[in-house]
Amino acid sequence: MAVQNGADFEDYLPLMAHKLGGEGLITELCNGFQLLMDTERGLITFDSLKKNSVLLGLQELRDDELQSMIKEGDMDGDGGLNQMEFCVLMFRLSPDLMHDSQVLLEEALLQELKNGAF
């Protein structure tokens, strides 16, 4: 991932999640998707990502790195990222956020077990 001011992009998602909460984070990710998508296709394509990468401070990424981002998140093989694929990719690119999510899930499950819900 690109480094900006000495911090990786993935450092910002846990901070955003903490400040905005889960629903706020999803709203912001959806807004980010809207900024990056090709409006005709309704997907983030290589071309739309390259064109709009400056909005995220990713203008220094090479074409092959942008292609890799699309390929990594493209679960249905249509050559672009739909909104769900984009959100999933953003979570996957943030190991700290994934870890925090797992911890919260485990705590919730333990609480449910204590309450006899299962």
Pick out its properties.
118 residues, mainly alpha, disordered N terminus, 2 strands
Overall description:
- This protein is mainly alpha-helical.
- 62% of the residues lie in helices and 3% in strands.
- It has five helices and two strands; from the N terminus they run ββααααα.
- It has helices at residues 12-36, 46-52, 63-73, 83-92, 95-114; strands spanning 3-4, 7-8.
- Strands 1-2 form a two-stranded antiparallel ribbon.
- Helix 1 (12-36) runs antiparallel to helix 4 (83-92).
- The longest helix is centred in the N-terminal third of the chain and has 25 residues, at 12-36.
- Residues 1-10 have low confidence and may be disordered.
Brief summary of the model shown:
With 118 residues, the protein is mainly α.
Count of discrete alpha- or pi-helical segments spanning 4 or more residues: 5
Number of strands: 2
Rg over alpha carbons? 16 Å
Give the terminus-to-terminus CA distance.
Answer: 41 Å
The average pLDDT value, as a whole number, equals 81
Q: What series of H and E elements makes up the topology?
A: EEHHHHH
Share of residues in helices: 55-70%
Spatial strand arrangement across the major sheet: 1-2
Low-confidence stretches: 1-10
| % residues in beta strands | under 5%
- Secondary-structure content class: mainly alpha
Molecular shape:
elongated
Major sheet attributes = 2 strands, antiparallel
